Amino acid sequence: MTAELERALGALRTVRACRVEEREEELIGHRAEQACAAGVRAARITAPNSSRSCTTDPA
């Protein structure tokens, strides 16, 4: 996502000259949604593991 944003910002003049602002906006928005979903999945995967590591061994 960061690379896409940097690419789009770096090429802003080209994007404007070619009139593809809307397409770039949709692409970056899609990448942002993907990054958010990946973060949520990672949190769900790691949450049970982190709670297990906090328990003490009864032995």
TrEMBL record:
It comes from Lentzea indica. Keywords: ATP-binding, Nucleotide-binding. It comes from the Bacteria. GO terms for molecular function: ATP binding. This is ABC transporter ATP-binding protein.
